[in-house]
Every structure is written in C-alpha cells, then in structure tokens.
Design goal:
By secondary structure, the protein is α+β, with helices and mostly antiparallel strands. Helices cover 38% and strands 11% of the residues. Bound molecules: zinc ion.
C-alpha cells in the first residue's frame, strides 16, 4: 500500500522494494533475510513475532499522510539523509551516459537540448536532465530542507 513512498525513497537514494499484495508472512521473512527495514501501515504486522522481538526492524508509516510527508517521516525516524538519486522505477544506481550512446533512444527534441544522460544499471531505463528531472531535484531539495537536523 506504500508504492508511492517506495518511488520517492528511491529518489532520495534508497533501495526500496515494494510489492502489491504480498503476504504479511512473506514480507516479514523477506525483511529478515535481506536485513531491510520493513515499512508498513498495517498494524497486525507489528504483532508478528519477528517484528516484536526486534529481529526484523519495522516502522509504522501513517497510511493517509501525503507521500512526501511519509518520506520525511521515514528518513527522520531512521536518522537518514537525502542521498544520491536512484532509479525511481527499480532503485538501481544511475550511471552517467554519454550523449552519443543515447541517440537511438532519446526523443529528438531532448537530444537537441539536453547534454546529461543517466542510465539505470539495473533496469536500463534512460534518464536525462529535463523538466521532469528538475521537478524531482526540487522535491529532493524540499525533502532535505524539512528533515530534522
Ligand atoms: Zn531502474
């Protein structure tokens, strides 16, 4: 239920995984195995043994809060800062990619105006410093400014 949160946690530099409809037991077990912090708005999940014992680190996230408030809440609660942007689709690292390697993929109007390209090392998605990127950067800056110092 926190898919939007996962996307924005990737945008502030964290490897967030999210799966629609995953079984509570599987989710807890996956967190135990990977050492990932479990984020959920599902109260009963916090009654599970592995969570209560602290073996799985978990954080309750208010479900109805606006997604950027959720991001600020999670970063503050876990004492994390804004790190380098990761792929918002999958959380992979972004690698600077030369202009001449993207001429087949990027739209002509983008190729004509944009110099900086990045490719996700995991899902291969291509990003460029366009208006969408600028909006993401502005949001990242706003998130960083709201964190407790
Ligand atoms: Zn990706």
């Amino acid at each position: 239920m926190l898919g939007g949160l996962a996307r924005w946690l990737r945008a502030v530099g964290y490897e967030a995984a999210w799966e629609h409809g995953i079984d509570d037991g599987d989710l807890v077990e996956r967190s135990r195995r990977t050492g990932a912090v479990l984020l959920s708005s599902d109260r009963p999940l916090f009654d599970r043994k592995l969570v209560r014992s602290g073996e799985v680190k978990a954080l309750f996230v208010p479900r109805h809060a606006p997604v950027l408030d959720q991001v600020v809440f999670v970063l503050d609660s876990l004492h994390l800062g804004v790190r380098e942007l990761r792929c918002m689709a999958c959380g992979g690292e972004l690698l600077a990619t030369p202009h001449d390697e993207v001429t087949e993929e990027a739209p002509p109007r983008v190729l004509a105006t944009c110099e900086d390209y990045f490719r996700c090392t995991s899902c291969r998605r291509l990003y460029w410093r366009g208006t969408h990127w600028a909006r993401i950067e502005a949001t990242r800056t706003s998130i960083a400014s709201r964190l407790v110092p």
